[in-house]
Amino acid sequence: MTITPEMPGRTIERVSTARAQVGPRSPQARPAPRLRALDGLRLVAALMVAAYHYGGRGGEITTAWGVSAASLFPSAHTWFAYGCLGVQIFFVISGFVICMSGWGRSLASFFASRAARLLPAYWASVVLVTLVFALPTVAYEAVSPSDALVNLTLLQQPLGVDRVLGVCWTLWAEIRFYALFAVCVVLPGANRRRIVLFCAAWTLAAALGKASGEPLLDVVLMPAYAPFFIGGIGLYLVHRNRRDATAWGIVGVSWLLGQHSAVADLWHPAGPHAFSYRSSLVIIAIVTAGFAAVAAIALGALARFDHRWLTVAGALTYPFYLVHEHLGWVAVNMLHQRLGIPAWATAVLTVVLMLALAWLLHRYVERWLTPRLRRSLTGGAGRPTRPQ
Question: Could you give the 3-state DSSP secondary structure of residue 69?
Answer without folding.
Answer: helix
